[in-house]
Design goal:
Number of strands: 10
CATH topology of the largest domain: Nucleotidyltransferase, domain 5
Number of helices: 11
CATH class of the largest domain: Alpha Beta
Radius of gyration: 22 Å
Largest sheet: 5 strands, mixed
Distance between the termini: 66 Å
Number of domains: 2
Helix content: 25-40%
Strand order of the largest sheet: 3-2-1-4-5
CATH superfamily of the largest domain: Ribonuclease H-like superfamily/Ribonuclease H
Structural class: alpha/beta
Order of helices and strands: HEEHHEHHEEHHHHEEEHHEE
């Protein structure tokens, strides 16, 4: 009990612990009802007997001030056995829908936990595609300490991201409303038109005549690289370097897959394009890429036993946003 109002506790976690499970992950999402920005899922595994400092600060994230959430976030990160976040982009939300996108964000968060979860407590939703014991709890962030902690982790990390997004799109005030449909936000959409961070399938955006000024080539390329990097992490790889530059050329992404160094050339394509991305990496471009990879191999202190060059084909939607990615392994060879 905290004051006169009970808060989240560990009773649901204890039920799994009594069955022999030790890594019970709480899952929750934020941003589902926003007009802009990603859906973000948090996943947290707490110790069997959380320290009182944790139970003192963790509440339903909606009942905390921004400062209280940030303080609670620090305690959670220090106390948890594992914590992570997963994201789905506005383009993915528009392509597959908000509920599938929420589940996708949760799966991505789970895939990044170390140690891995052996059982799940989920706020409201179920994850039938995950073959783990699980319990869906309505208003779980007010009942389960793990879910409440996951909600705080997701909220703090998403708010931080929306602050960074506001630097690219200062007209919309993302740093204050975080993408929710406030009057200021709606007024900005009417004045400037939607931007690349908006969910164009949501009302009133799906009634907007067109998106605002088109993204520049550099912005599109940067977004495609970030999208591909997230997908590599989803596949269990670790991205160790981005934009490795030499006087010979540049490598977009370098990742580790086991003991294999994977160099990734990211190519964005529109769905109407006839030439495949791999077909655009030929001749001098291919040679310069190989030389840059060889330079990295000489310079790196990362142990490796094999290496290859993949091409990430990032398909753009009609608003020039990354919507899906396909990896072509060993697309470029010496």
């Amino acid at each position: 009990m905290r004051g006169t109002s009970p808060g989240p506790d560990v009773e649901f976690e204890a039920q799994f612990h009594r069955q022999g499970y030790r890594h019970v992950a709480g899952l929750d999402e934020v941003g589902r009802g926003c007009l802009a920005g990603p859906v973000t899922a948090g996943a947290v595994i707490l110790p069997l007997n959380p320290h009182p400092s944790l139970t003192d600060v963790v509440r339903n994230s909606k009942q905390l001030s921004a400062r209280q959430r940030e303080d609670a976030y620090e305690v959670i990160v220090e106390s948890a056995l594992a914590h992570s976040t997963g994201w789905t982009s506005p383009a993915e939300i528009d392509r597959i829908g908000i509920v599938p996108s929420t589940r996708l964000a949760m799966r991505r968060a789970l895939s990044r936990l170390s140690p891995s979860a052996d059982s799940l407590l989920i706020d409201a939703l179920s994850l039938h595609s995950i073959n783990l014991p699980q319990k869906s709890i309505i208003r779980g962030d007010s009942k389960s300490l793990s879910i409440a902690a996951a909600s705080i982790v997701a909220k703090v990390e998403r708010d931080t991201l929306m602050g960074r997004i506001s630097e690219d799109y200062p007209d919309f005030g993302f740093e204050s409303h975080k993408g929710y449909g406030t009057q200021r936000h709606l007024d900005a959409i009417r004045q400037f038109g939607p931007c690349a961070e908006h969910r164009m399938s949501f009302r009133p955006l799906n009634q907007a005549p067109q998106m605002g000024p088109a993204l520049g080539t550099t912005q599109v390329g940067r977004a495609a690289e970030s999208f591909a990097a997230e997908a590599l992490e989803d596949r269990g790889m670790t991205v160790i370097t981005r934009n490795f530059r030499t006087r010979f050329g540049e490598v977009d992404l370098v990742a580790m897959s086991g003991e294999t160094l994977v160099f990734v050339e990211v190519r964005a394509r529109r769905s109407r394009a006839f030439v495949t991305p791999a077909e655009t990496v030929i001749g001098e471009k291919s040679r310069r890429l190989i030389v840059a990879c060889q330079q990295f191999l000489q310079d790196t202190e990362v142990p490796w036993s094999d290496w290859r060059i993949d091409v990430a084909s990032v398909e753009l939607d009609q608003w020039e946003r990354p919507a899906s990615v396909e990896f072509i392994e060993s697309a470029i060879e010496e």
